[in-house]
């Protein structure tokens, strides 16, 4: 099955990069298509098998840091993809693990080399991505855990960025395993408390932000408090993983 997917990509079914874009994310897009399932579960063993795509992408990232000539969307897409790709690397470098939190200070580790500078995942998230002022990035970057927003199985590009961020926000907010929003009760992910100030955009409060995407609006429901956060690895089940190599 994986061979068929790879052939489809080679024949042109991978994402199309606009000739106007500054950076080609095809290597990452290919690795995602091969190893991230529709439900967002990740085949880490598959990423290890397909590491040539990853390491080609890391080299491309390292040699092509965004500058002022890049559009805002191009820069955001680059850094979202970089964060997610290097999170995969962090896991597979120590695989198998039960949780990313089994690693020592995973988000502070400066293992990402971009244009000669060593960065951590926290550097990318807090010093770069959050400064764009778009709270939807919290649904795009993935921390390799079950309660995190699922990783998209397509690469972000300047062309698809806005639509894909909206899709990720709607998917996360309406996922009952990550948020409970019913007519009588609410219980939101801890992401909304950790980054509460980020969700106050254009004079809107957190409830207003959530209601942009929630199928059931938050009005006067009982607040059950934040949902428990499951830090277990967001790994595909072994039976499905085996199928991927048939």
Q: What's the gyration radius in Å? A: 18 Å
Strand content: 5-15%
Strand order of the largest sheet: 3-4-5
Regarding quaternary structure, what we see is single chain
| Global structural class | mainly alpha
Please tally the β strands and state the result: 5
Number of domains: 1
Major sheet: size, sense and barrel closure? Answer: 3 strands, mixed
Residue share in helix = 40-55%
Distance, first to last CA: 6 Å
Count, helices: 10
What is the 3D form?
Answer: globular
Unreliable stretches, pLDDT < 50, 5 or more residues? 242-246
Query: What does the average pLDDT come to?
Result: 91
Order of helices and strands: HHHHHEEHHEEHHEH
Q: Could you give a quick summary of the protein structure above?
A:
Residues 69-173 form the DUF547 domain. It comes from Aquimarina addita. With 246 residues, the protein is mainly α.
Structural topology:
Elements: H1 2-13, H2 26-35, H3 44-49, H4 51-63, H5 72-92, E1 112-114, E2 117-119, H6 121-128, H7 161-173, E3 180-181, E4 185-187, H8 191-194, H9 206-213, E5 222-223, H10 238-243
Parallel strand pairs: 4-5
Antiparallel strand pairs: 1-2, 3-4
Helix pairs in contact: 2-4, 5-6
């Amino acid at each position: 099955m994986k061979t068929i997917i790879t052939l489809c990509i080679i024949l042109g079914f991978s994402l199309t990069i606009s000739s106007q874009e500054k950076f080609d994310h095809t290597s990452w897009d290919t690795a995602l298509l091969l190893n991230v399932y529709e439900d967002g579960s990740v085949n880490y063993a598959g990423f290890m098998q397909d590491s040539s795509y990853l390491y080609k992408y890391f080299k491309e990232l390292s040699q092509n840091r965004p500058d002022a000539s890049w559009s805002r969307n191009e820069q955001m897409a680059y850094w979202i993809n970089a964060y997610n790709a290097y999170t995969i690397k962090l896991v597979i470098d120590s695989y198998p693990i039960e949780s990313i939190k089994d690693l020592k200070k995973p988000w502070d580790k400066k293992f990402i080399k971009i244009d000669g500078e060593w960065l951590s995942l926290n550097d990318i998230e807090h010093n770069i991505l959050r400064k764009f002022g778009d709270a939807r990035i919290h649904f795009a970057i993935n921390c390799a855990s079950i309660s995190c927003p699922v990783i998209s199985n397509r690469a972000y590009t300047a062309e698809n960025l806005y639509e894909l961020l909206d899709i990720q926000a709607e998917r996360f907010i309406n996922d009952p395993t990550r948020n409970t929003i019913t007519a009588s009760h609410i219980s939101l992910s801890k992401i909304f408390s950790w980054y509460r100030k980020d969700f106050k955009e254009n004079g809107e409060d957190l409830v207003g932000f959530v209601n942009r995407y929630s199928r059931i609006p938050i009005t006067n429901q009982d607040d059950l408090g934040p949902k428990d956060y499951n830090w277990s690895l967001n790994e595909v089940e072994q039976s499905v993983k085996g199928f991927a190599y048939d």
